[in-house]
Amino acid sequence: MAERGALEARGTRLEWGVRTYLMGIVNVTPDSFSGDGCVATDAAIATAQRHVDAGADLLDVGGESTHPGHAPVDESTELARVVPVIRALRKRFTTALLSVDTSKRSVAEAAADAGADVVNCVQRAPDELLGLAAERGLAFVAMHSQTTTEYGGNVLDEVLRVLDECTQRGVQRGIPRERMIVDPGIGFGKTAEQNLILLRGLDRVVGLGFPTLLGASRKSTLGKLTGRDPKDRVAATVATSALAAAAGVDIVRVHDVAENRDAVRVADAIAREWRPSAWIA
Questions:
Q1: pLDDT tens for residues 194-227?
Q2: Does 253 participate in catalysis according to the annotation?
Q3: Of 81, 173, 179, 219, which is the active-site residue?
Q4: What is the DSSP secondary-structure string of 97-160?
Q5: Is 90 among the residues known to form the active site?
């Protein structure tokens, strides 16, 4: 396997291509679609602690819901929700990799000051956020999204074209390739059928040559397939995580870390020949 680099920060190293890493979701919102949101800092810390105990490699903190029909949050509200949580998590988990889920430069900058290592942006890759990531040495997640489900051609081809353009702009601004992460954006401007096309083509997303992230956890497409409410879509999410691991995806962003950890460990052992440290051949 060709050397693909690693994300390194605070003494932690995530080597790309070796195994699938787990990003635990910490929703600091009262209106999360998945029903796990909270605005109290103590509750958010408790959620993060559960993720870490279950094996999370990264923690993703967000202060604005982004599901279809969500109510926009102003800058001051998002700052008040996110920054105290990131500051508290940095104090508690000194070597953990922390991500801020935002599309606002002011929030990303304040989060970096509080200890965030990654900017996870659902609005593709705004130049101002790419510039901030380059200036501060942050990793950046560029996620494909759009306001409609209309595509000029094949949805996968169009998503790949946009993600490739985002990564090239990021690299041109000075973000190292190993810190420029792409996410196909399941559910963001896609129908359920289009989401399935993207999930079927994850190997092509990996083929762009950049670190990859998949965020399919508890999404509505899984509900349409299973008939289950968001909180009961754990097994469905596990299926997408196993498929992602087999396709070579680097990170899965999930609400339920323990169950997805087991799934990707088995998939990684089969597809990537990964073994746990205590493995005896």
A1: 999 999 999 999 999 999 999 999 999 999 999 9
A2: yes
A3: 219
A4: EEEEE-S-HHHHHHHHHHT--EEEESSB--HHHHHHHHHHT-EEEEE---SSS--SS-HHHHHH
A5: no
Residue 85 corresponds to which tokens in the numbers above? Answer: 């949580």
Between 141 and 40, where is the model more confident? 141
Per the residue annotation, which of 90, 124, 253, 265 is the catalytic one?
253
For residue 35, name the pLDDT band (cuts at 50, 70, 90). low
Q: With 70 as the cut, is the pLDDT of residue 231 above it?
A: yes
Structure tokens at 12: 């932690």
**Which domains, ranges and CATH numbers included, belong to the chain?**
18-271 (3.20.20.20)
For the chain, how big is the Rg over CA atoms in Å? 17
- Can you point out the beta strands (E) in the chain? 6-9, 12-15, 21-27, 58-62, 97-101, 118-121, 139-143, 180-183, 213-214, 251-254
d(CA 208, CA 250) in angstroms, rounded, equals 13
DSSP category for residue 212 = B
Full-model pTM: 0.95
9-27 burial, b at 16+ Cβ within 10 Å, e below that, comes to: beebebebbebbbbbbbbb
Q: Residue type at 112?
A: A
Residues in a beta bridge with 141: 120, 181
Token duo for residue 264: 């990707």
185's torsion region: left (phi>0), alpha (psi -120 to 50) or beta? Answer: left
Closest C-alpha to 211, from 239, 248, 240: 248
Do the beta carbons of residue 194 and residue 207 sit within 8 Å? no
